[in-house]
Amino acid sequence: MPSEQRHQHSPNSSDIVSRIGELVRQWRTLRHLSQLELALEAGISARHLSFIEGGKALPSREMVTQLAEALAIPLRERNALFLAAGFAPTHRETGLAQPEMALINRAIEFILKQQEPYPALVLNRHWDITRANEGAAAFMNFVFDTPPDDPNMIRQIFSDHLLRPFIANWDEVASDLIRRLHHEIDWAPTDEKLRALLAFALSSPHVPEKSKVRPMEVSMSPTLNFVIRKNGVELSFFSTWTSFAAPHDVTLDELRIESSFPADDASARLWEKIIAGEFRR
Per-residue pLDDT tens for 55-80? Predict the structure, then answer.
């Protein structure tokens, strides 16, 4: 169990109460909650919350945990909240190459292998491709003569010299991904890298006009549908995402696996030929 003792290198208490209060108020505002609503959700009095936000009270580690849970703060930003309150971070960030992640790596490799012959990618929170199966490599070889150096999926899709010219249902894909980026920024509103990816996507001259203005409360589709057209041949796929439930490590909290499947029989047959090396571009 983590100690209640505050970090020995923390600033003085007046700086701490000011910083933690400001962060709590910022997250509460971003989540569109009143002080009373957050207090009820966190199981504390509105007066106590007011004192914390106003810099008149310093929350305990347990109180920081309650507030972080009530505000649905991601693990990386939750660690920042603990630091602001003068405590050591609660959640580890363990690289996948570390020995203690061996079973997680085994699970990931099993999922990627089970997805064969269809594409599967491992993505981090910023849409960087960190791992791919053979099906994903075959997909990239079908589209490109030389696979792109940039591992970021958003930049690949929205770049004119990469995937964008090959996406037949461009308006649908662009609109869907922009909605997803908005949704992820809502979840982690202090993430500047996500904001930069959204800005990059919106800077494309090919983005549909309707996607440049964020729609109000549009529900997210559980799948992403995309049609790749090259040399008069079309491949229709849909993608789903898998994440780790109830993670306690920042790395796992930000990890997801995208699995793609043929959307129709014609695409499934064409994909079999591509995998078997029987299709000539």
Answer: 999 999 999 999 999 999 999 999 99
How far is residue 33 from each of residues 7, 12, 29, 50, 219, measured CA to CA in Å?
A: 30, 29, 6, 13, 21
Pairwise CA distance, residues 55 & 5, whole Å: 19
DSSP 8-state assignment for residue 72: T
Q: What is the pLDDT of residues 4-27, one digit of tens each?
A: 555 544 455 556 667 899 999 999
**This model's pTM is above 0.90:** no
3 state SS of 242: strand
Contact between 78 and 87 under an 8 Å Cβ cutoff? The reply is no
Helix (H, G, I), strand (E, B) or coil at 203: coil
CA distances from residue 15 to 8, 22, 80, 81 in whole angstroms, order as listed: 14, 11, 15, 14
The alpha carbon dihedral of 238, 105, 98, 249 has a sign of positive
The token pair that represents 34 in the structure block: 């009143």
Type of residue at 164: R
Q: What is the pLDDT of residues 234-277, one digit of tens each?
A: 999 999 999 987 778 999 999 999 999 999 999 999 999 999 88
Give the domain ranges of the chain.
Answer: 13-84, 99-276
Does domain 13-84 fall under CATH 1.20.120.1200? My reply is no
Which 8-state DSSP code applies to residue 149? S
Residue with tokens 């203005």: 213
80, containing H or E segment: helix 75-84
Q: CATH assignment of 99-276? A: 3.30.450.180
| CB-based contacts of 87, cutoff 8 Å, min separation 6 | 2, 6, 7, 61, 64
DSSP E strands: which ranges in 184-271? 224-230, 233-243, 256-262
Q: Cα(156)–Cα(55) distance, rounded to whole angstroms?
A: 45
Average pLDDT over the chain, rounded to whole?
90
Whose CA is closest to 125, among 30, 253, 18? Answer: 253
